C-alpha cells in the first residue's frame, strides 16, 4: 500500500496570496488608466467629440397669456425659429443665401471668416417666414425653436400691455409690472451634430418640450371699448394736429378700468417701432399736466364740504378781478354777472371760483386734495405711473389757492382726474383703480383677484348728487354742449389749460379736455379725454375734446351692457 506524504500548507497559502495581489495590481492599473483617459483625454479624442458637440444655448420659453375681461387674447407666445451659424461648417461663400431673408447687411456680416463656434443670425422669426431658408439646409446654418411674444391685435392696448425684450422679459406696462407672473426663465439647450452633420437638440423631448411655468392674467378692460376709444382718440388728435392725447374709461362703482389709451401709439410686433420714445410713453398714467377747468367740480366739492360755500350762495362776476398782485380773468374777460353754483360750472367762471377759494382754509383744501388722490400714485398695476405735483400748503401764498381752484398750479395725471370725477358719479367715494381682474399660476390656480377698494370718502352723497345735476346742465345748456347726445344723458365738464414750462406758461400751447359720465341719472361709465398741444385756431376742450367724448359714448351704447 503506497504511503501518503502530506506537504506543508504554507506554500499553497503563499501562492494564493500572490494571485490576489496580481489581480489587485491589474485593477489598480485599469483604474489609473481610466482616470487618465477621463481627466487627460487624448487630443484626438477631444477633437473628434467636438465634431459632434459645440454649444449650449439659452432660449426663450413660453410666456404667460394676457387676455381681456371676456377672454379675448391680447398677448400670447407662439413658436418661432431662430437661425445661427457655426463657423466651423459655414462657408462665407454661402452668405448670399441670407440676403433674401435677412437683408444685405446681415449677408455682408457672414461673408467673411468668423471666430468661435456660434453666432446668432436672427431670432424669433415667424415659422412660415423661416421655412424656405430652413429647407435649403445650408451647411453651417442651423435653426432652433424658441417662443416669441406677439400681440394679436397689433397696437391695441399697447400702452397698457407694454412689451418684452428679445428674451421675453417684460419692459413696460403690464408685461413689466407682472413680469414675475408672466415670465418663464429661459431653458438651456445642448446642441450636437449627428453623423450627417445636422444639428440636433438633445434636451429630452426636443425643442417643444419646454415646460410652461408661467402664469396668466385676465384684465378688466373690454377690447371692444378699448378699440373704440383708441380709434376716436387717434382720429381726434390727428384732426387737431395734437402732440399727444390720452383717454381713460372706468366703472365708477368698482374702480375697474374698462379702457385706457394713449396717443401716439405703435405696433409692438415690429420691434423697430420701439425707437419712437414719444410713442412708447403712456400719457394716461405717465404724463402730468395742469387740468384747467375740468378740476372745478372737484374744488367746488371741497368748498361745499368744508362749509366755505353753499348751494344757495351766489357770486358776481365782472369778467376780471384783482387778487393780491395779479389779475384773474375769465375767457375773453366775459362778465357773467350774478351766478349760483350751477351756473358757475355751466359758465366755467374763473372769477367765481377765485372768490370761492378765498373762504377755504388752505391746509384743509390741501388735505382734501390729497384725499382725492392728487400728489400720489394711484398704485394701479401699470408700470411707469407718475404721482403728479401739489404744492405744500405753506407755499399756498397770494393767488395760489385761487389758481388751484381753477385747475392751475397743480399737476395731475389723466387717471387721477378720472378717478376723482368717478367719486362724484358714485356718491362720494374715491376708489382705487385696477386693471387686473384675475391672476392664475401655471397650474391654473387663482392667486390674485382684483376687487373694489375704497380709499377715502371724499364728499357726502348730497354734494355728489348736486354736482351730478350741475354737470348735467353743463352739457345740456352750458359750455359742454358739443358732448350732448340724443341717445343718452351725459354729465360733464370742459377744460382748457395752458402748458407750463420752467415756471412760465407757453403762449399758444394748451391741453383741451372733457370729462364726464353717463347715463347722467345713474352713471355706469366715467371717462376723460385730453388732447395735448393742439395746433390751430380750435384748442378749447368744448371744441375738440367734447365731440370725441360724445362719439365714444355713442359707440359704447351699441354694446349690450350685460356683455361688458
C-alpha Rg (nearest Å): 35 Å
Which band does the percent of strand residues land in? 15-25%
Provide the low-confidence segments as ranges: 202-210
CATH-scheme architecture of the domain at 223-563: 3-Layer(aba) Sandwich
Which whole number gives the mean pLDDT?
A: 88
Helix content: 25-40%
Structural class by SSE content: alpha+beta
Structure notes:
It is built from 19 helices and 21 strands. The protein has 564 residues and is an alpha+beta fold. A hairpin with a 6-residue loop joins strand 20 and strand 21. Helix 9 (223-239) packs antiparallel against helix 19 and helix 12 (296-306) crosses helix 15 (362-371). It has a domain at 223-563: 3-Layer(aba) Sandwich (Beta-lactamase), CATH 3.40.710.10.
Q: What's this, in brief?
A:
This protein is α+β, with helices and mostly antiparallel strands and about 575 residues long. The protein is about 30% helix and about 25% strand.
Amino acid at each position: 500500500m503506497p504511503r501518503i506524504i502530506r506537504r506543508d500548507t504554507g506554500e499553497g497559502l503563499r501562492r494564493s496570496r500572490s494571485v490576489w495581489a496580481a489581480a489587485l495590481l491589474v485593477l489598480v492599473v485599469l483604474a489609473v488608466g481610466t482616470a487618465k483617459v477621463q481627466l487627460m483625454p487624448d487630443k484626438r479624442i477631444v477633437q473628434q467629440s467636438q465634431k459632434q458637440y459645440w454649444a449650449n444655448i439659452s432660449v426663450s420659453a413660453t410666456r404667460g397669456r394676457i387676455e381681456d375681461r371676456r377672454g379675448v387674447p391680447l398677448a400670447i407666445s407662439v413658436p418661432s425659429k431662430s437661425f445661427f451659424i457655426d463657423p466651423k461648417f459655414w462657408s462665407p461663400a454661402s452668405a448670399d443665401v441670407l440676403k433674401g431673408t435677412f437683408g444685405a447687411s446681415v449677408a455682408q456680416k457672414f461673408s467673411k471668416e468668423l471666430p468661435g463656434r456660434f453666432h446668432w443670425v436672427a431670432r424669433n422669426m415667424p415659422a412660415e417666414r423661416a421655412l424656405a431658408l430652413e429647407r435649403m439646409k445650408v451647411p453651417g446654418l442651423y435653426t432652433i425653436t424658441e417662443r416669441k411674444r406677439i400681440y394679436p391685435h397689433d397696437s391695441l392696448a399697447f400702452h397698457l400691455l407694454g412689451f418684452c425684450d428679445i428674451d421675453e422679459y417684460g419692459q413696460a406696462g403690464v408685461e413689466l409690472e407682472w413680469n414675475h407672473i408672466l415670465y418663464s426663465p429661459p431653458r438651456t439647450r445642448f446642441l450636437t451634430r449627428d453623423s450627417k452633420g445636422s444639428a440636433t437638440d438633445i434636451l429630452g423631448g426636443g425643442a417643444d418640450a419646454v415646460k410652461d411655468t408661467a402664469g396668466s392674467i385676465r384684465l378688466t378692460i373690454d377690447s371692444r371699448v378699448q378699440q373704440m376709444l383708441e380709434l376716436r382718440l387717434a382720429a381726434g388728435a390727428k384732426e387737431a394736429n395734437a402732440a399727444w392725447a390720452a383717454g381713460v374709461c372706468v366703472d365708477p362703482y368698482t374702480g375697474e378700468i374698462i379702457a385706457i389709451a394713449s396717443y401716439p401709439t405703435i405696433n409692438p410686433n415690429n420691434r423697430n417701432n420701439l425707437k419712437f420714445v414719444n410713442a412708447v410713453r403712456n400719457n394716461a398714467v405717465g404724463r402730468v399736466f395742469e387740468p384747467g377747468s375740468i378740476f372745478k367740480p372737484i374744488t367746488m366739492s371741497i368748498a361745499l364740504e368744508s362749509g366755505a360755500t353753499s348751494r344757495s350762495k351766489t357770486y358776481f362776476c365782472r369778467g376780471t378781478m384783482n387778487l393780491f398782485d395779479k389779475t384773474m380773468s375769465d375767457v375773453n374777460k366775459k362778465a357773467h354777472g350774478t351766478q349760483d353754483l350751477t351756473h358757475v360750472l355751466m359758465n366755467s367762471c374763473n372769477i367765481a371760483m377765485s372768490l370761492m377759494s378765498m373762504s377755504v382754509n388752505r391746509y384743509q383744501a390741501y388735505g382734501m386734495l390729497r384725499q382725492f388722490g392728487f400728489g400720489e400714485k394711484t398704485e394701479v398695476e401699470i408700470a411707469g405711473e407718475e404721482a403728479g405735483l401739489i404744492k405744500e400748503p405753506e407755499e399756498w401764498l397770494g393767488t395760489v389757492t385761487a389758481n388751484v381752484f381753477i385747475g392751475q398750479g397743480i399737476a395731475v395725471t389723466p387717471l387721477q382726474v378720472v378717478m376723482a370725477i368717478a367719486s362724484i358719479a358714485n356718491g362720494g367715494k374715491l376708489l382705487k383703480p385696477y386693471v387686473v381682474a384675475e391672476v392664475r399660476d401655471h397650474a391654473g390656480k387663482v392667486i390674485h383677484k382684483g376687487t373694489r377698494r375704497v380709499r377715502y370718502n371724499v364728499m357726502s352723497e348730497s354734494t355728489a348728487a348736486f354736482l351730478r345735476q350741475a354737470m348735467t346742465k353743463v352739457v345740456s345748456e352750458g359750455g359742454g354742449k358739443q358732448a350732448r347726445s340724443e341717445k343718452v344723458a351725459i354729465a360733464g365738464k370742459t377744460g382748457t389749460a395752458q402748458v407750463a414750462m420752467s415756471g412760465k406758461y407757453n403762449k399758444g400751447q394748451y391741453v383741451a379736455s372733457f370729462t364726464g359720465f353717463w347715463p347722467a341719472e345713474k352713471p355706469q361709465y366715467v371717462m376723460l379725454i385730453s388732447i395735448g398741444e393742439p395746433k390751430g385756431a380750435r384748442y378749447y376742450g368744448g371744441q375738440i375734446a367734447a365731440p370725441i367724448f360724445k362719439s365714444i359714448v355713442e359707440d359704447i351704447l351699441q354694446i349690450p351692457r350685460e356683455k361688458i
